[in-house]
Design a protein that fits this description.
Low-confidence stretches: 1-8, 10-22
Radius of gyration: 25 Å
Strand content: under 5%
Shape: elongated
Distance between the termini: 76 Å
Helix content: over 70%
Structural class: mainly alpha
Number of helices: 5
Largest sheet: none
Length: 123
């Protein structure tokens, strides 16, 4: 019996390290993908200052339900094409839209309180 375990032990060790390596590679790829997604979200959010400035100067509302619905529908369509669950995409996109609006409202409030700050903003 002990001889059988000794015989199988190297196979178990190789299997263990192989699975660990595969898990690590899979985790690394996933972590990299998450970093890319986070960078894209950060990039999108960074544009909100300029969107807010445009809307402020043109006296446009931060809220644009028609545009929001277009963005949501386009995102759902793209998600379906990519094989993603549209039920999980919709709340994610809505949260992104809400975050973008919150940032725009914050800039708008600052500029209304101190109008000269919008002119000092570099584009």
């Amino acid at each position: 019996m002990i001889n059988k375990l000794k015989c199988h032990k190297p196979c178990a060790v190789i299997l263990k390290y192989s699975l660990s390596t595969l898990f690590f590679i899979s985790f690394t790829a996933t972590a990299h993908q998450y970093q890319e997604i986070a960078a894209l979200i950060e990039q999108r959010v960074s544009y909100m200052k300029y969107v807010a400035k445009y809307k402020f100067e043109k006296h446009l509302s931060v809220e644009d339900r028609t545009q929001e619905n277009k963005v949501i529908l386009n995102s759902i369509n793209k998600a379906e094409i990519l094989g993603l669950d549209k039920k999980s995409i919709k709340p994610f996109i809505i949260s992104q839209i809400n975050a973008a609006k919150a940032i725009q409202y914050r800039y708008k409030a600052d500029w209304l309180a101190m109008p000269e700050t919008i002119f000092n903003m570099m584009i």
